[in-house]
Write a structure and sequence with these properties.
The strands form two sheets. Strands 8-7-6-9-10-11 form a six-stranded parallel sheet. It has a five-stranded parallel sheet with strand order 2-1-3-4-5. It is of the alpha/beta class. It has eight helices and eleven strands. Helix 1 crosses helix 8, helix 2 crosses helix 3 and helix 2 runs antiparallel to helix 8. Helices cover 37% and strands 17% of the residues. Strand 6, helix 3 and strand 7 form a beta-alpha-beta unit.
């Protein structure tokens, strides 16, 4: 018998598309908890929506009876590329300069940073990866980028674009003071982000807070990833 599910909140646009894809896979969408086998919610859902007696699938949340699909490795990898694609779109839309032959800084070297490097590389060979670990800096260089440490960010930097993926403060007063005033900073890190908003404004830097990009830039593709992940988790965990 096909499993039934409810979607009590569609404020995360991905879930509308995830619901559609789950139904194409054979799942049945119903309207109330009594006839459902599980609940499907978005990323960072309101805690009030977690009060169900059946299993719940949601993103970036820890609670009893909740399965966090964002912790799945396949989801994280696919989501990283959707995030990187949207980040580039944000950068291009908000700059009067081209990415071609530009100087680009990427802080961190996790999944999103690596996806960014791959996407940006065809436009410019002037990419610098700023990472805390020496092995990450070495890996960045092997992959064709320059590298630097976070201490280096306090030196005058001539970047046209800076993408932050580190989820804790890395761009503070000293670091922001070193940037050119025409540098565009795209902060992709989860709250509270990695950029001091006050000092970015003080130094006249253009800062774009770009969290939850997949839901905003490519919700259908992101919803498909959610659906595939939930289906995988149900088969592996709940059956």
């Amino acid at each position: 018998m096909s499993k039934r599910f409810i979607t009590p909140d569609l404020s995360d646009k991905r879930i509308m598309f995830a619901s559609r894809y789950l139904q194409e896979m054979g799942y049945i969408k119903v309207k109330n908890e009594k006839s459902a086998d599980f609940v499907l919610l978005g990323v960072n859902p309101n805690a009030e929506l977690l009060n169900f007696d059946i299993p719940c699938f949601a993103g970036n949340i820890s609670a009893n009876g909740v399965y966090d699909y964002t912790k799945d490795e396949s989801f994280a990898l696919e989501n990283a590329y959707l995030t990187a694609e949207g980040a580039l779109a944000n950068a291009i839309d908000n700059s009067e300069n081209s990415l071609i032959n530009s100087s680009v800084l990427i802080t961190g070297y996790g999944r999103i940073a690596k996806a960014l490097q791959r996407y940006i590389a065809p436009f410019t060979n002037d990419i610098t990866i700023c990472a805390r670990k020496e092995n990450d800096r070495l890996a960045a260089e092997i992959n064709g980028a320059k590298s630097c440490s976070f201490e280096d960010l306090k030196i005058n930097n001539k970047y046209d674009f800076a993408f932050n993926t580190v989820p804790h403060p890395v761009f503070n007063e000293a670091e922001l003071a070193a940037f050119n005033s025409n540098c565009i900073i795209i902060d992709l890190a989860s709250f509270p982000g990695g950029v001091d908003v006050h000092f970015a404004k003080h130094f006249g830097l253009k800062l774009i807070i770009a969290r939850g990009i997949p839901a905003k830039c490519s919700p259908e593709s992101a919803g498909k990833v959610v659906a595939r992940t939930v289906d995988k988790m149900i088969r592996e965990v709940i059956v």
